What does this fold into?
Amino acid sequence: MTFDWNWEFAIEILPRLLRATINTLIAAGVGYGIAMILGLVFALALRSSGRLPRTLLREVLEFIRSTPLVVQIFFIFYVGPQVGITLSPWVAGMIAIGLHYSAYLAEVYRAGIEAVPRGQWESCRALNLTTRDSYVRIILPQALPHAVPGMGNYLVGIFKDTPMLSVIGVTELMQAANSIGSETYRFLEPYTLVGLIFLALSLPTAGLVRLGERRLRRKLGL
Amino acid sequence: MDLSAYPLELPESDRPMVRFMNVTKSYGSLVVLDSLNLDIQRGEMVSVIGPSGSGKTTVLRMLMTLETINDGVIYVDGKPLTHMVRNGRLVPADEAHLRRMRASIGMCFQHFNLFPHMTALQNCMEGPVQVLGLPKAEARARAEELLAMVGMIDKKDQHPSRLSGGQQQRVAIARALAMRPRIMLFDEVTSALDPEVIGEVTQVIRKLVAEHDLTMLMVTHQMGFARDISDRICFFYKGRIEEQAAPEQFFTNPQRERTQQFLRAVKDAD
It folds into this structure.
């Protein structure tokens, strides 16, 4: 057994991996978009609805957080058709990853909203703002800076979890590396490159999130 | 709670700006306000004083509908505040009724509660634009006029974090007035301020008393200020009005033992 890194081979497969990286970014972006919106809906529902729906929703979110993402991906893709819901790998994958992370983001938003002082709500009430205006114009803009660090963590998290989509055949980075491996019987270069590409994209993201938070606070005058 | 004994609406001949009728507020077994009866006339300035925990802030918060009430009825301009009439009976008010009633009430808070992500001007335009539906230009003109009135026009584009406590409180007063309320509530508006800036806030309130026909209810610890500008002083003790009188009478010749004790304690502390 030898450790024979082949530069030529690595350079040869790099374009193919980079093309797949675009799919990975799309998957992470779309999944995160779904998670951000759904997470907000859940966070607001947790604060507003009656006791029973609230408890029910809290349990469902707890269930989503407590079960592995890969199981959820398999479930939606393979069990779906048995109950008449047939989805393409992409759609099933986006739903699974978006739903999974929405359960985490709901918690991030909730903490952000609760960090806004109660006096802000009282001002809204005293000015007779509707609940909707209070959220949209007063509370959420102030909750956002509190939520940004957590949101950033899950952005990196969702990005690093996209390889799980390869299990149902979404053609993202991991899937491309797998194909290269099974075509050439060389695994060292493709998987090493996959790791490096993830590293190269994850590291700056964390920095950008910190920068974004500072900018946001300044823009909001906080 | 049986509300059948309460009128659905106060008659024209007996319609103070605010009437508390047997209003009770409790948290669990702790009774904060015990069957409060209090009338506030149109244009009257009433100061509420008393030891902490006497329920005085709760009176204001109930009037702003920040607190629910457990019993009794509050009437604002003759109409029930937290109740509404349905099928000839008083029932708990829905959000639409509360919003209608709140429109005539404004409030300033101990900790100002300005919106930190908005400038002073934006703070004063938010309600008029979003709630009253005023065109932006009109809301801006109104806000600038009020900011000028409280002496804050040159700071109108500053965010609250750049303003001192006294400045923030003056903006908060302008913000409340921009909604054109008929009743203004001041909840310990100088309690969180450094001594040297208290004057700039009390000055603004004096101006309001002198120049406007607002009905005002103020919770304060500043006896001298209350004595100067109030039409009436209400002394709260343990959730009840222990004594109320015109300022001169109240401060020079208090009738009740508790009032005398309180005034003595306040004087000693000064």
About this structure: The CA atoms of residues 223 and 267 of chain B lie 9 Å apart. Chain B touches chain A at residues 64-66, 99, 102-103, 105-107, 109, 111, 113-119, 126-127, 130-131, 159-162, 175-176, 179 (CB under 8 Å).
